[in-house]
Specification:
The strands form four sheets. The chain has a three-stranded antiparallel sheet with strand order 1-2-5. The chain contains twelve helices and ten strands. Among the domains are: 47 residues, Ubiquitin-associated (UBA) domain (Helicase, Ruva Protein, domain 3, Orthogonal Bundle), CATH 1.10.8; 155 residues, Tetrahydropterin Synthase, Chain A (2-Layer Sandwich). A hairpin with a 2-residue loop joins strand 3 and strand 4. By secondary structure, the chain is an alpha+beta fold.
Length: 299
């Protein structure tokens, strides 16, 4: 049997970030074969992945990349903020972002049945779980490439909110596209414009507005005259184009964009935006800080 030397253990630890005892055992079980030992640890990771499968991963980060006429944004989740900040998580995030940005993945299902960095996605996730000891999940991503225009991106300093915005224009306004992305990060628009609001959402809003007007005691004959104004305000509140621009609240985002573009010699129209915030719609754990620290010390 080949010798399991400290040098081999060190090398395996650097490759996998697994514990020293696990590395020693892996090398012992595989007759000091480095590739086989990595595979042994990967399989161990698969076992750990199964144990965390039912856990809630509602923390994590948003990552994005803007590269010329193309942008990609992704949300990657873990269980705790501690892991979201560690170097292994950041390395995993970078690997996934680059694979998405440069690859042909068009939906999250494509990614999860595909290959990332030469590894099957399921193996990549298993390795990440083995290193970090928590459930890790690539929850969603969006990509956009514009033919005639500019793309702006904004990632908040805490990496928990990110936005990409694509503007169709001949004007050099990439800087303003980024301003719009910053606006979206702060103001949380749900839709790009009125045309994107589903008919059932508008119908429900009309129903709610009508009930509010009746409770306010508005005359029946006036209801249909007042209602359009309330719906108009709702549309302005929930659409990126309709919201008052944070840097000039006398203009809507669409008006501010057109003013800047025309000043630089062209018209402009927002054709796409994606705003991701970590954990949106996910059920978060109610553990307090002390419990979270205690949980970490037991890993």
């Amino acid at each position: 049997m080949a010798a399991v030397t400290p040098e081999l253990i060190k090398e395996l630890r650097e490759k996998t970030n697994a514990g020293l005892l696990d590395c020693k055992k892996a090398l012992t079980e595989t007759n000091a074969d480095m590739e086989a030992a990595v595979e042994w640890l990967r399989k161990k990771g698969l076992s750990k992945a199964a144990k965390v499968a039912d856990k809630v991963a509602a923390e994590g980060t948003i990552a994005l990349k803007v590269d010329g006429d193309k942008a990609t944004i992704v949300e990657i989740n873990c269980e705790t903020d501690f892991v979201a900040k560690n170097a292994n998580f950041k390395a995993f995030e970078s690997e996934v972002l680059e694979a998405l940005h440069g690859g042909n993945f068009s939906a999250i299902g494509d990614l999860k049945t595909g290959v990332v960095g030469g590894k099957k996605y399921e193996d990549l996730i298993a390795d990440a779980i083995a290193k970090m000891g928590e459930k890790i999940d690539v929850r969603r991503f969006a990509k956009y490439q514009i033919k005639n225009g500019v793309i702006g991106g904004y990632l908040h300093s805490n990496s928990r909110v990110g936005v990409i915005v694509a503007v169709e224009t001949a004007a050099p306004i990439a800087d303003f596209a980024r301003d719009i992305a910053m606006h979206a990060a702060a103001m949380r628009p749900t839709y790009l414009n009125e045309a994107e609001i589903p008919a059932d959402v508008l119908a429900k809003e009309r129903e709610i507005a009508m009930e509010q007007l009746k409770k306010e005691g508005k005359p029946e004959a006036m209801l249909e005259k007042i209602l359009p104004g309330k719906i108009k305000r709702f549309v302005a509140d929930v659409t990126l184009e309709g919201q008052a621009f944070v840097k000039d609240d006398k203009k809507s985002v669409a008006e501010a964009l057109n003013a800047v573009a025309q000043a630089r010699g062209a018209s402009a129209k927002i054709v796409f935006f994606a705003r991701f915030e970590v954990g949106e719609g996910l059920q978060k754990k109610s553990d307090d800080f002390a419990a979270e620290v205690a949980a970490q010390t037991k890993r």
